[in-house]
Automatic annotation (TrEMBL):
Protein name: ABC transporter ATP-binding protein
Keyword field contains Nucleotide-binding: yes
GO molecular function: ATP binding
Keyword Lyase: no
Residue intervals of the ABC transporter domain: 5-246
Biological source species: Maritimibacter dapengensis
InterPro entries named in the record: AAA+_ATPase, ABC_AA/LPS_Transport, ABC_transporter-like_ATP-bd, ABC_transporter-like_CS
Keywords: ATP-binding, Nucleotide-binding, Transport
Pfam family, one: ABC_tran
Domain of life from the UniProt record: Bacteria
Amino acid sequence: MSAGLQVRGLQKSFGGIIVADDINVDLAPGARVALIGPNGAGKTTFSSLITGKLTPNAGEITLDGQDIRPLGEADRVKAGIAKTFQITTLFRDLTVRDNLRLAAQERDGRARAWFKRADSWAEVEREIDAQLAAFRLEALGDKRVSDLAYGQQRLVEMAMTLMLKPRVLILDEPAAGVPSSDSHLITDAIERLPDDLAVLIIEHDMKLVFRVARSIIVLVNGRILTQGAPNEIAADERVRDLYLGARHHD
Ligand SMILES: Nc1ncnc2c1ncn2[C@@H]1O[C@H](COP(=O)(O)OP(=O)(O)OP(=O)(O)O)[C@@H](O)[C@H]1O
């Protein structure tokens, strides 16, 4: 049995169109894998198959050797697979600290949260302090989310997701919409994620990808074109054509 997430022969089609075609991926503890590819390549579909939002037509998905296909989305989160909260799910009128507390309640189950003992509330506050520190958000804990810069809001999303104590984290375009002057905030936060967390990063910003990924998967038309270390991917003619092709043919 191998530790972490294993995907074997994953297949998904919508109508007659195959959007995930025999995909094999390993995300061991500590992995930093980026999934790149042109628009419509199937990156979001792949992440939805992992989170349980979509059901595959064929293939296996295991976490620490356990088949997770029968689990729904909420149970996969409980099992340790989390995708970042989206900015649209942040409570903008609440403080950063309140948002992290809500994520902890989500994790612990709302019903049980009402009956929590005082010491377990204190424990949650300590966890919130730890996440605020990990994301360098200590000074912003009592600020309303709506008063934060966009890049900082994206850090709050990540901190909230970490409150779920995931073992596998899917970062869905973590730098999208963040002004380039602030993108280092996102890159730095990804570099400081816990060492034993398995991280899959779906991202169009190649600067970020090449800085944080140790392995890059290139997806084209639902198939893995190639996977390798960043220097191998950067040197791959097929990948260069994919990203520079349009310019070649200008
Ligand atoms: N619910 C759906 N029904 C039918 N087709 C779908 C559905 N969701 C996605 N598709 C199609 O599947 C293909 C892959 O889409 P997907 O969103 O996974 O690509 P992507 O790589 O994430 O693209 P982007 O980089 O633009 O986000 C596209 O051709 C898309 O139109």
